[in-house]
Design brief:
The structure holds 2 protein chains of 2 kinds. Chain A is mainly beta. Chain A has no helices and 12 strands. Chain A has one domain: Immunoglobulin-like (Sandwich), CATH 2.60.40.10. Chain B has one domain: Sandwich (Immunoglobulin-like), CATH 2.60.40. Helices cover 0% and strands 47% of the residues of chain B. The radius of gyration of chain B is 14 Å and the shape is globular. The chains are: A mainly beta, B mainly beta.
């Protein structure tokens, strides 16, 4: 069965410091991995995805994520956090071999990121 | 390029009343999704359309929920009658046609916040 876990409900970081939001996954085949961000009262915005190729994926707003197959992780990172990065972050996974009703994203519960000035 | 449009943004109704949500996907996107998101949770897929065909409605509570996408563009999600537990944000997303083996990034609308009293 496919699953994704975001082990931290909340992450606090000071502005200017590096940030990491963790995500681990479980799929039977190769994973397609996504990060989305949700600002208050807004829909989800796509940040970045891993399909294949380079393990380090760069996305919007200076975010990047590293795919680690051995640790089944896809942690979101940013070298220097901004107060405006404060939002809810969701990791999602799909099995690349899935078809039919299994061809859907499995979502984590989200991690609330608070960047303090 | 216009994003996914949803209306209304907010809706307050009394229980047992009907309610409908409308979604206009990004032009050219053949796949459309309806999600429900409860506070503090990730999105939960209700139904997925490929053009006008509902290809995954396994999570749609069919006793009170219905959806349609008659011409393969706009879509409507209806609840009749609404229950207290239906209070949530209803998100619509769309994704473009994909080549075999390439996954589909989903682009979300702002959502409709439903409150059932």
């Amino acid at each position: 069965a496919q699953s994704v876990a975001q082990p931290e409900d909340q992450v606090n970081v000071a502005e200017g410091n590096p940030l990491t939001v963790k995500c681990t996954y479980s799929v039977s085949g190769n994973p397609y991995l996504f990060w989305y961000v949700q600002y208050p009262n807004r829909g989800l915005q796509f940040l970045l995805k891993y399909i294949t190729g380079d393990n380090l994926v760069k996305g919007s707003y200076g975010f990047e994520a590293e795919f680690n197959k051995s640790q089944t992780s896809f942690h979101l990172k940013k070298p220097s956090a901004l107060v405006s990065d404060s939002a809810l972050y969701f990791c999602a996974v799909r099995d690349s071999n899935a078809d039919g009703n299994n061809r859907k994203l499995i979502w984590g519960l989200g991690t609330s990121l608070a960047v303090n000035p | 390029e216009a994003g996914v449009v949803q209306s209304p943004r907010y809706k307050i109704i009394e229980k047992k009343q009907p309610v409908a949500f409308w979604c206009n996907p990004i032009s050219g996107h053949n796949t459309l999704y309806w999600y429900r998101q409860n506070l503090g949770q990730g999105p939960e897929l209700l139904i997925r359309y490929e053009n006008e065909e509902a290809v995954d409605d396994s999570q749609l509570p069919k006793d009170r929920f219905s959806a349609e996408r008659l011409k393969g563009v706009d879509s409507t999600l209806k609840i009749q009658p609404a229950e207290l537990g239906d209070s949530a944000v209803y998100l619509c997303a769309s994704s473009p046609p994909t080549l075999a083996g390439v996954t589909d990034t989903q682009y979300f609308g702002p959502g409709t916040r439903l409150t059932v009293l």
